[in-house]
Write a sequence for this structure.
C-alpha cells in the first residue's frame, strides 16, 4: 500500500512539472481592439483549442496535430459584448483564459487564467488507482458506477489538495466501470475495464 501511495506521489510530481512546462506554452494576447492572438508551442497530437461564449457555446473548435507551433487569430469584432473564454485542452489539463468584449474592444481579464487538472485513473490487476490534483481546493464529488449504473462509491465535497484513492475490485464482477469527477462547472468521466 505504501508503495502505491509513493508511486502516486511520484506520478503527481512528474505530471505537475509537465503541466508547469505546458502552462508556458500557451499565450493569449490582444493585438488590436478586436483581435485576439492565441499561440501554442510544442503542440501534441490531440490537443484542442476552443473559443467559447459565457454560456459555454463553442464558437471555434479545432483538434491539433503535433507541431512545433500553432497560431490562431480570433476577430471578435462581430460578436456581442460579453465574456468569452479561450480554452486549450491537453491530456492532463485544461487552461482557461477569459476575455471581455465591450464597446471599447476586447481585453484580457487580468489574473483570471485558470488551469483545471484532469483526474488520472489507472486500472491494473483489479486495482483502480485515482489521483486528482485539486490546486484550488474546490469541492470535488467522485462517484463510481458499475456497468448497470449502480452506485458503488460516492465522495461528496472533498476539498483535499490531492485526492488519492485506491480501490480493490478483485471481488467485483468483470466489466466496465465509470468514475465521475464533478468540480465546479466541469465533469470528467473516466472509464475502466476490470
Amino acid at each position: 500500500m505504501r508503495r502505491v501511495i509513493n508511486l502516486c506521489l511520484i506520478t503527481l510530481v512528474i505530471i505537475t512539472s509537465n503541466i508547469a512546462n505546458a502552462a508556458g506554452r500557451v499565450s493569449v494576447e490582444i493585438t488590436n481592439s478586436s483581435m485576439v492572438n492565441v499561440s501554442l508551442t510544442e503542440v501534441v497530437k490531440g490537443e484542442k483549442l476552443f473559443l467559447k461564449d459565457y454560456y459555454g457555446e463553442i464558437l471555434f473548435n479545432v483538434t491539433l496535430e503535433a507541431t512545433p507551433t500553432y497560431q490562431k487569430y480570433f476577430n471578435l469584432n462581430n460578436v456581442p459584448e460579453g465574456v468569452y473564454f479561450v480554452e486549450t485542452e491537453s491530456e492532463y489539463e485544461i487552461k482557461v483564459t477569459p476575455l471581455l468584449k465591450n464597446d471599447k474592444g476586447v481585453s484580457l481579464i487580468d489574473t483570471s487564467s485558470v488551469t483545471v487538472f484532469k483526474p488520472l485513473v489507472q486500472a491494473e490487476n483489479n486495482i483502480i488507482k485515482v489521483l486528482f490534483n485539486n490546486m484550488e481546493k474546490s469541492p470535488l464529488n467522485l462517484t463510481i458506477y458499475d456497468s448497470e449504473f449502480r452506485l458503488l462509491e460516492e465522495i461528496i465535497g472533498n476539498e483535499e489538495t490531492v485526492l488519492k484513492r485506491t480501490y480493490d475490485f478483485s471481488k467485483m464482477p468483470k466489466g466496465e466501470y465509470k468514475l465521475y469527477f464533478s468540480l465546479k462547472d466541469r465533469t470528467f468521466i473516466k472509464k475502466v475495464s476490470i
